[in-house]
Amino acid sequence: IVIAVHGYEDDKGIFIVKDYCFKDLLIPKQLSSLKEDKFFLFASGFLLSETSIIFNQLEYLFLFHNLISYTITDIDIMPGVNDPCCYMLPQQPLHPCMFPSSSKRKTTLCLANPYDFQIVFLQTSGQNLDDIYPLSTIDDRVQILENCLKLCAIAPICPDTLSCYPYVKNDPFIITDIPHVFFAGNQPKFETRPHDIQVRLICVPSFAQSNSYIVLNLRTLECFEHLTVWLELEIPSYNDSNDFCIVVQNEILDEIA
């Protein structure tokens, strides 16, 4: 963390801080302008193993297409704190064998956590905010996310209270290229705000708790929360994944009708 401190040393040899400032953030590289709206969907915290839903199936994500007017083309999958992968940050991508059907699609990618996507997106699964929040007096989690951006540090508490791999020469948690969108998943509720330097900050809520996901307009960087109704239905457990998808879809159509 780069910080400048102004103060003086008293008679007891203690440095008294009068003022301080952090490094100014650079404006993100300008994106190529879009002539039409294109959307990016954020969803996190499915807790599949805790809801009797077959773990290795992400096909039900495509059921969103029956509820909204957006066509889902690419899916990026990041690990979280409860997923079967390494606990320490940065978490390595989940193995494709966990998604035997979805991984066959070239548009389904398993990513590391945290991960930056072509400088446009900087994304985490939320461990950085979850670890800072109990130690902070700030109640607004999107403010904590903004502070991480100001400090140019994805996880300033690593490795003190949040486990991470030991690095000697390079720190992967330092933000060197300012993103256009900085978000954290698995949060208690949806929060967002634009930063002064044209960065969209987003706290993505846990899908299992909120039944919602976030839609971002790539042209305007405006975003909103989209609530779903079908996960509130009582869905029995099925051994066959195809039967599961068919039954869920039928119950959705019945509910909408």
Alpha carbon gap, first and last residue: 55 Å
Q: How many domains in all?
A: 1
In terms of structural class, how would the helical and strand content be classed?
A: alpha/beta
Largest sheet: 5 strands, mixed
Task: Write down the overall geometry.
Answer: globular
Annotated CATH topology:
Purple Acid Phosphatase, chain A, domain 2
Elements, N to C (H/E):
EEEEEEEHHEEEHEEH
| Overall pLDDT level | 76
**Under the CATH scheme, which architecture would be assigned?**
4-Layer Sandwich
Going across the major beta sheet, what is the strand order?
Answer: 6-7-8-10-9
What does the radius of gyration come to? 21 Å
Description:
This protein has four helices and twelve strands; from the N terminus they run E-E-E-E-E-E-E-H-H-E-E-E-H-E-E-H. By secondary structure, it is of the alpha/beta class. The chain has a single domain, classed as Purple Acid Phosphatase, chain A, domain 2, CATH 3.60.21. The strands form four sheets. A five-stranded mixed β-sheet has the order 6-7-8-10-9. The chain has a three-stranded antiparallel β-sheet with strand order 3-11-12. It has a two-stranded antiparallel ribbon with strand order 1-2. The C terminus is likely disordered.
